[in-house]
Predict the 3D structure of the following.
Amino acid sequence: MSQALEIEEPNQVASDSKTIFGFWVYIMTDCVLFASLFATYAVLHNNTFGGPSGRQLFSLPFVLTETLILLTSSFSCGLGLLAAHKGEKAKVMAWFGLTFLLGLAFLTLELTEFKHLVSQGDSWRESGFLSAFFTLVGTHGLHIATGLCWMSVMIFQVSRRGLVAANVRRLTLLSMFWHFLDIIWIFIFTIVYLLGVVQP
Amino acid sequence: MNYFGGLLGRLTLQALQHNLVTSVGVIMMSLGIILVVGLMFYFKRWRWLWKNWLTSLDPKKIGVMYIVVAVLMLLRGGADALMMRAQQATSVGAAHGLLSSNQFQQVFSAHGTIMILFAAMGLMFGLINLVLPLQIGARDVAFPFLNATSFWLFAAGAALINISLAIGDFSTAGWLAYPPLSELRYSPGVGVDYWIWSVQITGIGSLLSGINFLVTILKLRCKGMTLMKMPMFVWSVFGSMVLVIFAFPVLTVTLALLFLDRSLGMHFFTAGGGGNAMMYVNLIWAWGHPEVYILILPAFGVFSEIVATFSQKRLFGYRSMVWAIWAITFLSFSVWLHHFFTMGAGADVNAFFGIMTMIIAVPTGVKVFNWLFTMYRGRIRFKTPMLWFMGFIVTFTIGGVAGVLMGVPAIDFQVHNSLFLVAHFHTMIIGGVVFGYFAGLTYWFPKSFGFKLNERLGKYAFWCWLIGFLTAFLPLYILGLMGATRRIDHYDASLGWQGLFIVAAIGVAIIGLGIAFQVLQVAFSIWQRKSNLDLSGDPWNGRTLEWSTSSPAPVYNFAILPEVSDRDPFWATKQSKLVEDAKPNYKPIAMPKNSGLAIMIAGLAFLFGFGAVWHIYWLPAVCLMGIIVCIIVRTTNDHSQYLISADEIQKIEDANATRRQYA
């Protein structure tokens, strides 16, 4: 029907703004998803069914460590994106590499907490409260894992093809995703952990 | 529980054993598949199918595929409806009808799920794909590959719900699977899992479509098309997609939580363990109520286009129509509790939701009056789409009044879960959504295929549908008031319901006749297409941009992107009779290349769902890996477009101009 000419994205700016706007809309849907999970947690957080409550289970210093690690990763991710816009490939690799490691550390700590809870017999099967807790925090963890997967692909891409326009756009989306997860975590930290410990 | 026991999970040969009724269904389905595959081999069309359809990223083709799947699902859901009506007409006193209670429960669960999520949603996204890019003067949607993925996920969900007929059973818990009945303890089989995964997979497809079309509307409109110059169909899709974006994540979460309850022993909705079953009912309706507006808004849009075109007049009250759409969009999130006034939330909560329910009827009423005023002093042409519109006005008003009636909590307590409710929502969904999409299909059919549908057979189909619909559902209002509850497979003869149930069954048979006329209409129109050709590209004397291009539209939609300065741009052009530029200067156009990855992702999602249903745990793991690999391959591909040269465009446009001379 026509000759297949290979072309790099025509009309780069329009295409970028479309993709970034689309990604914002996606983030909004993810926001609704987390809002639903927060709502279920709010409904079920007192349904301990004779099992332990958040006050008995959560260790605030541990969660604060997790939080600081994730916040730092958001900062390094931001520096990585700034470097990407300046076209400094080595710095991009370094900052996103650091972000990856911090994210991995966060995920490891989260899984450690889960493992600890399950091993002392407080798994998601115990009560409505624990089901809601594991699902809400676990869904955030799943998002972090997805982000790490994406980040490793991007680091590989940047190392191979450098900071071409498509890669900068993808890094922009990735950092939007990463900051979003940070914000969700702030809510988890406040609503699940802080309020959970404060409540009688 | 043994999660890793056996390579096939809980799938055994027993899953293939069925009784007579299901066997007939399975045999029909298998014969259909064998026939299609046989024809493909006979005519050696596999390559054509793969290159022109299955891998296509063209929304015009994806739209057609949506409609094909949706029509097949409509036939399946229609067969379910026939069985239910036959059962309720005959299963009285000593007689027990054709179906067992268990089967009857599967049939009504499948009917509801299929009709809403696969028939109606499919027709809706099909029409949006066909029309929306053309109406806003765009060449494509914002994310073509995502669009194809959405369609194929929809098709994968449809395949999963149909395979439940042949392998295992379907859910017996109703179309929304309320717990605790849908929990493992009371529904230990695979039925509810089939329901969860088929709805989950198609739901994710719908969510992605919602994002895609929202961005398309906001970012890809042609020059001069400000928001207040958009065609009303585009506005209605805009409202509907906003609802998709806010409602579908709630569905995703709700289904996931039910699955976690069933598979990992969690306690979200269980009767014991600190679960809360009413939370499920709240969550599912926080999606479910917006969902009915997701379906009806685009149907409103279709009618707005049709009534203006066939009255040959500007749409009355454009601005108030836009505000009505946004009022409905906003209010549809504040009425969900009216589905369960009997929950016992208390008088204050019920009063709030009762009042909101009545308020939402106001913008809907505004729209009805605007349509009527559009017809007033118009030169009306009574073509088939216009007949569907007029049928809709009558039935929709009946159903709307019944709905407002049920919005009064005190009345709702009397008719809750009765056939009065069933009659109400069928009046809205058949009389509103289905009539709307049939009208749209007839209206835009020539734009997709280049020839019109036969008018006479279309009118026969319409009258069968309208009369059949009234015969089938008016008795249900009366039965509901007499105390007949929904979902009964047997009742006592002394109740005196049988006469009305028989009338209802006759009504469904008349609708069946209408469907037969529609099948005949399509077949006859294809056969006689030479005499119905739409050479002008504008068969109805239309008003909006989609009629300014050829029928069927070229792959790039518009050789030169249009610029508009009017709400009815094509109408304005025709009125001003401007002579076109002598020789337009075509430039090369970049279009997306085909991609087989979308169908691959959906195929893997289907296997993922199948594995999750049967607890074949290695299969979902493998499929998930496969999907991730597909996504990485696609997102790192920088050469996803090809260029159509200016000469090529010149050739296509010249051919179209020649066609137009014969019009």
User: Anything to note?
Assistant: The CA atoms of residues 73 and 102 of chain A lie 6 Å apart. Residues 1-9 of chain A have pLDDT under 50 and may be disordered. Residues 56-193 of chain A form a domain with the Four Helix Bundle (Hemerythrin (Met), subunit A) fold (CATH 1.20.120.80).
